[in-house]
Amino acid sequence: MVPSILLLASLVTLVVANPLNRRAMQLHESRTAIPAGFAKSGTPAPDTVVKFRMALAQTDPDGLTDALYDVSTPSSANYGNHLTKEEVEKFVAPKPETVTAVNEWLSEHGITAQPLSPTGDWIQFTATVSQVNQMLDAEFSTFTHSVTGDQTVRTLAYSIPTDLKDHVLLVHPTISFPSVFARRPVFSSPIKVNNPAVNLTSDAVPASCASVITPACVQALYGIPTTAATQSSNTLGVSGFIDQFANSADLRTFLTALRPDISPSTTFTLQTLDGGSNPQGRSQAGIEADLDVQYTIGIATGVPTFFISVGDNFRDGDLEGFLDIINFLNGETNPPHVLTTSYGADETDLSAALSIQLCNAYQQLGARGVSILFASGDGGVSGGQSQSCRNFIPAFPSGCPFLTSVGATTGVPETSASFSSGGFSNVFARPSFQSSAVSSYLTTLGSTNAGRFNTSGRGFPDVSAMGDNVEIVWQQQAGLVGGTSCSSPIFASVVALLNDRLVAAGKPVLGFLNPFLYSTGASALNDITTGSNPGCNTNGFPAVAGWDPVTGLGTPNFPKLLTAVGL
Questions:
Q1: Which DSSP state fits 378?
Q2: Which N-terminal residues, if any, form the signal peptide (predicted)?
Q3: Which of 18, 220, 300, 530 has the fewest CB atoms found within 10 Å of its own CB?
Q4: How far apart are CA 74 and CA 72, in angstroms?
Q5: Residue 241 within a domain
């Protein structure tokens, strides 16, 4: 009997000493089904190495939200008193006990993490599939996309220790899948190179704008001045992803032909992260990147523009790039006052937790006075791109309330572009700033599309701008492009020019736009009341008087916006 007792005692000692058995676990995130287009195709080797990110609980995220609205709402006594970098970081830095608890857990599994964000609320680490299967009580598998053939390692559920539930917000990549739509620019149609209807000329007048949109058309439609900005401290940022490179020669040709009143040598400043670059070979020019720099530099006359190229070093579906560019800018003392991004995904591709944490990263920049604009997408009510569906698919990140989503218009006079993505988030609740506008729309809509969308969700887009038959120069040839990719840089340029006038008058820049747009600024927009955005075998949502989930509150009217901002 003695040997048996000794053996039992030894086993008990092993159980107590083994950290994998000491911690009680609880389910943290899961999804019930594999996303459309993906299929399980195997099991990765146990020693397969994966790069992970982890979001830690922040000290006071709700306090930051309150501060953001306080400095962004025109009726507030603190309107325009944007927070400093240090003030924002006090809200988002994790508590010391959170950092200690998480690091101890990782150490138990032989993992060391490094800070990913300026405050350490995001950390990153590498681990083998075997390690994370044990650490997260998960079963990582290989999934293959039926169209692209791309493979990715994911799990459909994972757990964390029960005692860490108040410290760990999410681990990624786990249940969020790479977005196929985030892998290419948001376009409704390919470029039409050497189209005989396109004449590369500088004498565009309103009559010609019915078929070809140029900077002159945009200026005429929206009353945008051609005079140069004067404040060098006021800057505009353009996001670049998926090896889309902005070509300086294409920009020079574009400016020479379509903005001959400004120097053809006018260009952008390059910033890079995650191994980003911007090679200048003619064949390396990107349609999206060319469009974005041509319709920021070509519209926001004289505003210093930055092209921020995000590389592939840490990419797994490009959503990492969305986070990295914001952390990069959060780390800057003077980030650009306006940031435009013409890429997106479907909300269904992401877990709710990841969507929320990416959204919360945007509010950090907004609190510091940065206006963040995103193209709403080109799938109508079916998401980022047109696809089969029954229930409407919200686009991401347009459902995030802390950014301004931009839809598209077409034609002269303007009507809503049929591809303009819009709808209601299934993750984010309707924010107070748009409560009245959305409620009015839902009343007008009645029972149309009932059961296909979340009536209590955040509605998008917020505004719109021209997004069809837009002339650009790509690989030294003129052509037309369409999509909300055109609309976001155009509206961003308007905001940048307003900021220039504000700074010149000794006033703060606009910052987070939505509380202003849905109150003081609403009457300074051109209401678009015709058209719809079909998808999912429906006519989608109709555009009506007032806000609608096709063109938002409308397109910019620069003179009226100047008055609305107090100039």
A1: S
A2: 1-17
A3: 18
A4: 6
A5: yes
Q: Which residues contact 293 (CB under 8 A, 6 or more apart)?
A: 238, 246, 251, 268, 305, 307
Cβ atoms of 45 and 140 within 8 Å: the answer is no
Active site residue 62: no
| pLDDT given for residue 345 in this prediction | 87
Q: Average pLDDT, stretch 39-54?
A: 94
Average pLDDT over residues 404-419: 96
Q: Is 316 a catalytic residue?
A: no
Q: Which domain range does residue 350 map to?
A: 183-564
Residue 175 lies in a domain: no
The closest of 242, 243, 255 to 283, measured between CA atoms, is 243
Distances from the Cα of 191 to the Cα of 214, 245, 290, 355, 465, angstroms: 15, 16, 12, 31, 19
384 close to 345: Cβ distance less than 8 angstroms = yes
Residue from 29, 121, 137, 288 carrying the catalytic annotation: 288
Please state the length of the chain: 567
Q: Identify the active-site residue in 292, 320, 346, 349.
A: 292
Beta-strand pair 141-145/151-154: antiparallel
Q: What is the DSSP string of 120-146?
A: SSEEEEEEEHHHHHHHTT---EEEEET
User: Number of structural domains, the chain?
Assistant: 1
Question: Which candidate in 485, 487, 488, 493 is catalytic?
Answer: 485
End-to-end CA distance of the chain: 93
Binding positions for Ca(2+): 527-528, 546, 548
Going from the C-alpha of 280 to that of each of 248, 269, 290, 310, 438, the distances in angstroms are 7, 14, 12, 16, 45
Per the annotation, where are the binding residues?
A: 527-528, 546, 548
Q: What mean pLDDT is predicted for residues 212-241?
A: 96
Rounded distance between C-alpha atoms, residue 398 and residue 383, angstroms: 10
Check the CA dihedral 186-421-460-489 and report its sign.
Answer: positive
Lowest mean pLDDT among 1-15, 186-200, 211-225, 536-550: 1-15
The tokens 């921020």 sit on which residue?
A: 308
Q: What are phi and psi of 187, to 5 degrees?
A: -120, 145
Structure tokens belonging to residue 64: 């930051």
Cα–Cα distance for residue pair 157/99, rounded to 1 Å: 24
The pairing of beta strand 141-145 with beta strand 38-42: antiparallel
> Token match 């979001």: residue?
55
For 87-114, what is each residue's pLDDT tens digit?
999 999 999 999 999 999 999 999 999 9
Q: How confident is the model at residue 312 (pLDDT cuts 50, 70, 90)?
A: confident
Confidence of residue 183 (pLDDT cuts 50, 70, 90): very low
Q: Which two tokens stand for residue 115?
A: 């800070």
* Parallel, antiparallel or unpaired: strands 338-341 and 236-240: parallel
- In a domain, residue 381? The reply is yes
- Please give the structure tokens belonging to residue 565: 């901002």
Catalytic residue status for 288: yes
Mean pLDDT of 438-463: 97
For residue 74, tell me if it sits in a domain: no
| Domain CATH for 423 | 3.40.50.200
